[in-house]
What we know:
Low-confidence stretches: none
Structural class: alpha+beta
Radius of gyration: 25 Å
Helix content: 25-40%
Amino acid sequence: MPNKGTKVYCPNCRKFTICRALSPTKAGKPKAQRWYKTDHRDISWFRRARACSSCESLFLTAEIDERILEELIALRTNLAKKNLAIVGHVRSTRPWLVRTEDVPRELAEEFIRRTAWWHTHSSGSPVRAPKHSDRIYRSHHGWTIDFGANSFLVGKAISRCSIEINKFIDGSISGNLQEIVDLKKKLIMHIRGAVANNNQDEYAGYYSLTGPDMMFGAQSIDVEDGANFIIQKSGINELICP
């Protein structure tokens, strides 16, 4: 039999699922369902407990006047703008909060020249976009380039790849030389992991791929180009092909 309930957003699954309506007492709350704030009486809601049919988690939902949600969005937007100005001051007056960049700008620019693509060229085919390297700037993450709402942290990508290259070199000294295919896979993951959102928060996971490309609107970074560039610049080819 199909699951009974209503399709609502489950915060644990992070998607819309079929959820049963339950008494709030099932979630450890009072059984009353109609609530309002005594100091803001226009903020009132109808509380329900929900049980997700997919993950079986319990959570509370509220039926509320949509105007309250619009007000919340406006307040969040204004707060974000205010905090952005404060953050700029905090970081400019406390240098120790900003990552010390050990990657030369020239290397970061060359990485972008070798990996950036433009996918809406008039030719109808993707073309390389070397001039994107002119847009690199220094943020608290180190060398950074913005692509719309996302930022590629090119300095961090190169720095993390350098650690992997050094592990490869150390392994060759001990006679434990790993396969180049395995090395490239690790470098690609480091490149995919060096992306931040529009709040400059680095993503916890790895940026998705379309083929070999991390797509940012009409632009992309080719992660295979990036791994090949790192290997070529590192000078380890003699270890790979003695």
